[in-house]
Design brief:
heterodimer; A: alpha/beta; 7-stranded parallel sheet; 31 helices; B: alpha/beta; Purple Acid Phosphatase, chain A, domain 2; 7-stranded mixed sheet; 17 strands
Chain lengths: ~800, ~210
């Protein structure tokens, strides 16, 4: 194996030592094997695979097995555009040192049309790209020739793709490539809960039939978790999402660390923290920046570059910096509030301390007192390697429809050739003949049309059975809508004097009038006017203004984190205050115990209390907000079978509340097994407004399947008569084509991802084994207080709310 | 549901049209005939049934109310000539005794001849009794009845349930019809004190505000 030595020598020339997992990967590649490499970011995973690809090529060359030396050899797929440059640099260095004249190119949504045309004429040897761009390539004529010499596909950050429909795009692309050039396939994934399944999804039906390698890197990064404990826990709020009260204790941390990333859960929170830090320490001006998904690409690039160069002391960010290139100057991470999941917390911690052997340091800043228990739960979960599963999407008809049209706009496809490929993917393994013919009908006849004179046209069936789009305008429209990420209607925010600041959701702006001030990208801005999808603003002198809230910030607590949280709650139930965090919350725990109880792991706590508003029931399953939404509706429905009652529902990640103006017969409910699993599906259907939930889900589905088209860029007028909303489609399908599989998909996505039926069932199973404890506290307990406050928040404006909370706290202390 | 306004008794039909019995006048706004076909022709698979149902409902209304005249408050057609329009012309010819008047709307881009060929009288507006019938709102001494907006209203129920439904909306000085056509979308209005809002149900129209 002389090729192996090439890589080892190269490592030695750099003064590095290769890891066992890298050598394993090289050997596997040389053996012509496919597989999955389980290695964290920053561990040398790029060289493990890129060197493997090169070695395999050199070996084939030496053995005279190369038919062609020209053409595309490797596609490196990454979910994150920002990573492409780093990957390219790493590959380029290796090639240069080996004097291998491979051309390495990047193709993403940012690549210019000229560069794309060039890549098309003379294919590079290595193409670094995204799943969407791969589909765009397959939407261009002669794509099969383009891929003919392909030897490898690497799916980088596979764990990241797995939980989204972008993974389905990649599965489909791979199924096509297997027929065209049968490349070796490698995934690179960080550790997730369902590692086995990650492989199954990547390889489809090859999993279990073909020999596949699983290589795990031995590197495990040490994470140090430091809770920020309020000095006077008694005065720290029992409820809250912001945590700015603890901002002062953040300053010394910033002081002693070279660069710090402060992670918040929502963009609004990031804006508020950024302003607040500047207010309490104006010297930070110029040294602090903000980074979130709505800020313009240019601004974000600037922040990232400044981070790289060590010019910033601190960046307040959201999940927008969860992934991406490493910033070496970052030494410390601060997480504000619950990270909602173990894996996300680990991921964020990993953004500090990059050099091998260095540990990551992450501070946990609780936004309310009880969150300290969550900190302890996170520590325990990380200790045990309790990481979340990534749920793969299966049977996504929207992506299937899009893919079929993609093939039809390039060279066309024959159903009998493509169907077996599609069925070889994990996502569509169970696709029935009937479902397949529905999909074909949908794109050729526009659904189950029986009309003789129907004018539907899209994909045409040629005489030889080839399915093809011949209309150029239609083909162009399709190419513009390829992808599985659907964004809200966004408006560009722009200074009147020029200069883009970012984009903002239409619904937020629609609530403002010209002259109003709002905070965006860390600046107070005055709205001048909204014109043609652009919001014109100027800097405002006023310091007060609305902070935009963005939708989607409401992630539920993951099952792994909630499981560990329940264990910690059980500990404090038994007075085991064995860590600084738990000791710190002790006064609050005592308050809870004096008013009610703290449930042990084998207990479910229900608190019942009365107020001027009526009768309140609080239930604490500690299962995350989605499951609570399902449980709350289910309980409300079943209780209303005892006597007609109307409820209002409130919830958070720890529990939920049912409120009624009449007495709630919870005792009767408990006696007659109200948490039973019997008739669960029927009761869910009867209790939850699935139709409304499905309607919201349908937005993405309509976008991906090409029902909703936003118009050609700069050509809004012409296609005005073709604009429509996903809501309308949902309604007409429901009324006139209830068998439509896209419609059905929206309902099954609701069950799977919204109601989290599987989790709901297992929560009920657990409750069935628990002892139910009903207590009757005289006033709100520390457990129920945050839920009460959240309900008020939804009903009232923020200023009034603060008054209300003050009043309530007063009531509690007296 | 009969709503009395300006001393006229208007029947607010659950089929999303107004019948003014005294005058034998059926008022229909925003039918958007041909919208579904236009989408389908451009490769967007809206169920074709939605189009046919518009005409069936319209025919049903004519049989039910036996009007002397039908006033379309604009956006009768959605786009260029297509098969759906031909079917509408067939419908029109089936009722030669009924006068049909179109107050032109922004979507009515068919040539005047196309409408005239179908024996449809074109007007900019129509004054009838205490009402001024238009497509979009106009300042007027008379009570303005119009379409264009496709009004809807959000109803909130128990818990977190809520529902957005098309509605008849009567405010101070103007009244708005819901859009007649399926697959036409809507715009949510918020009523204030003094407004009257009616929701067409499956079999009857209900007052909700």
């Amino acid at each position: 194996m002389s090729e192996l030595k090439v890589a080892e020598d190269w490592f030695a020339s750099k003064g590095w030592k290769s890891f066992e997992f890298q050598k394993d990967t090289w050997r596997a590649c040389l053996n012509g094997e496919s597989g999955l490499l389980n290695a964290p970011t920053g561990s040398g995973k790029t060289y493990a695979l890129f060197a493997g690809v090169v070695l395999e090529y050199l070996k084939a060359e030496r053995e005279g097995r190369l038919k062609k030396t020209k053409g595309l050899k490797l596609i490196w797929v990454t979910p994150i555009r920002a990573l492409t440059k780093d990957i390219k640099n790493a590959c380029q260095t290796f090639c240069d040192d080996l004097e291998l004249s491979w051309q390495i190119a990047i193709r993403t949504g940012d690549t210019s049309t000229a560069d794309r045309a060039k890549q098309k004429r003379t294919p590079p040897d290595v193409l670094i790209t995204t799943p969407e761009s791969m589909h765009l390539l397959m939407a261009s004529k002669g794509y099969a020739d383009y891929f003919a010499s392909l030897r490898f596909v690497v799916a980088d950050e596979w764990h990241e793709l797995m939980g989204s429909k972008r993974a389905v795009l990649l599965e489909l692309a791979l199924s096509r490539l297997k027929t065209i050039s049968d490349p070796l396939i490698w995934g690179i994934s960080a550790t997730i809960g369902n590692m086995e399944q990650a492989m199954e999804v990547l390889f489809g039906t090859d999993y279990g039939t073909k020999k596949l390698r699983f290589i795990k890197s031995e590197i495990k990064k040490k994470i140090e978790i430091i809770p920020i404990i309020p000095d006077e826990i008694e005065k720290y709020p029992w409820a809250g999402h912001l945590g700015v009260k603890l901002a002062e204790s953040v300053l010394p941390i910033l002081e002693k660390s070279r660069t710090t990333l402060i992670f918040t859960n929502t963009r609004a929170q990031a804006e508020i923290w950024y302003q607040h830090l500047l207010n309490i320490k104006p010297e930070l001006a110029g040294l602090i920046a903000m980074h979130h998904g709505s800020i313009s690409r240019e601004l974000r690039d600037w922040v990232e570059d400044a981070l790289h160069d060590g010019k910033l002391k601190c960046v307040v960010c959201t999940s927008s910096l969860d992934l991406g290139v490493d910033f070496r100057p970052v030494e410390t991470i601060i997480q504000i509030g619950s990270p909602k999941g173990v894996a996300r917390f680990v991921q964020r911690a990993g953004r500090s301390g990059h050099s091998p052997g260095e540990r990551s340091v992450i501070y946990f800043l609780p936004t309310n007192a009880l969150q300290l228990i969550e900190c302890e739960a996170l520590k325990a979960a990380i200790q045990k390697d309790d990481l979340e599963d990534r749920m793969p999407y299966i049977r996504s008809f929207d992506v299937l429809v899009q893919y079929l049209i993609t093939l039809a706009v390039s060279d066309g496809f024959k159903p009998n050739e493509i169907f077996p490929e599609i069925r070889s993917t994990f996502s569509y393994e169970s696709l029935s003949d009937e479902e397949w013919s529905w999909a074909l009908n949908f794109i050729t006849k526009g659904g189950s049309s029986l009309e003789a004179y129907d004018e539907f046209s899209k994909v045409e069936v040629m005489e030889d059975g080839l399915h093809k789009v011949n209309n150029r305008r239609m083909a162009m429209r399709h190419r513009l809508s390829i992808g599985a990420i659907v964004s809200d209607a966004m408006l560009m925010v722009k200074f009147q004097s020029g200069g883009r600041l970012g984009s903002i959701e239409e619904w937020f702006i629609s609530r403002l009038s010209p002259g109003d001030t709002f905070w965006f990208a860390g600046r107070p801005l005055e709205l001048i006017r909204v014109k043609e999808m652009t919001v014109h603003v100027k800097l405002s002198k006023s310091k007060k203004g609305a902070v935009p809230s963005w939708q989607g910030g409401r992630m539920p607590l993951s099952s792994m984190l909630s499981e560990n949280l329940r264990i910690q709650i059980g500990k404090i139930a038994n007075d085991q205050f064995d860590s600084a965090e738990l000791r710190a919350v002790r006064p609050i725990v005592e308050a809870q115990k004096s008013l009610s109880i703290v449930p042990d792991v084998n207990e479910l706590l229900i608190e019942k209390l009365h107020s001027r508003e009526g009768c309140h029931i609080f239930v604490y399953p500690f299962e995350g907000r989605f499951v609570h939404e399902g449980l709350a509706s289910l309980l409300a429905y079943r209780l209303s079978l005892f006597k007609p009652l109307s409820f209002s529902i409130a919830l958070n990640d720890y529990g939920f509340e049912l409120l009624s103006d009449q007495e709630i017969p919870i005792e009767d409910g408990v006696d007659s097994n109200i948490f039973s699993l019997d008739h669960l599906s029927e009761d869910i259907t009867a209790s939850l407004n699935q139709s409304e939930m499905a309607r919201r889900r349908f937005r993405d589905i309509a976008g991906i399947s090409g029902l909703v088209f936003k118009g050609f860029p700069g050509n809004y007028q012409k296609d005005k008569h073709l604009q429509s909303s996903s809501q309308l489609f949902f309604d007409v399908f429901r009324d006139y084509e209830p068998t439509n599989f896209l419609l059905k998909q929206s309902f099954s996505e609701v069950m799977e991802f919204q109601i989290e039926e599987v989790r709901l069932r297992s929560a009920l199973k657990r409750i069935a084994t628990q002892k139910i404890r009903v207590t009757y506290p005289e006033k709100p307990t520390p457990f129920c207080f945050p839920i009460l406050v959240d309900r008020l928040r939804e009903r009232m404006s923020s200023e009034k709310l603060e008054d209300r909370i003050k009043k309530m706290t007063l009531q509690l202390e007296s | 549901m009969i709503y009395e306004i300006q001393n006229a008794k208007l029947t607010l039909l659950p089929e999303r049209a107004i019948f003014w019995e005294q005058k034998g006048m059926l008022i229909v706004a925003d039918a958007h005939i041909g919208k579904v076909s236009h989408f389908r022709k451009n490769g967007i698979p809206v169920p074709g049934m939605a189009e046919r149902n518009n005409l069936w409902r319209l025919s049903g209304l004519v049989l039910k109310t036996k009007p002397k005249q039908i006033v379309f408050l604009g956006d009768l057609s959605h786009s260029r000539l297509n098969r759906a329009w031909d079917q509408f012309v067939d419908f029109r010819k089936a009722y030669p005794d009924v006068e049909m008047i179109l107050v032109k709307g922004n979507h009515d881009i068919l040539s005047d001849q196309s409408f005239e060929a179908a024996d449809i009288r074109l007007v900019d507006h129509l004054n009838a009794g205490p009402f001024r019938l238009t497509h979009d709102r106009e300042e007027s001494e008379l009570y303005n009845i119009h379409g264009h907006i496709h009004p809807s209203i959000r109803l909130r129920g128990k818990g977190k349930q809520s529902l957005r439904v098309p509605c008849y909306f009567f405010g101070k000085g103007y009244g708005i019809l819901p859009s007649f056509g399926d697959f036409t979308g809507s715009y949510t209005l918020k009523p204030v004190e003094g407004d009257a809002v009616f929701v067409p149900g499956d079999n009857e129209t209900m007052r909700v505000f």
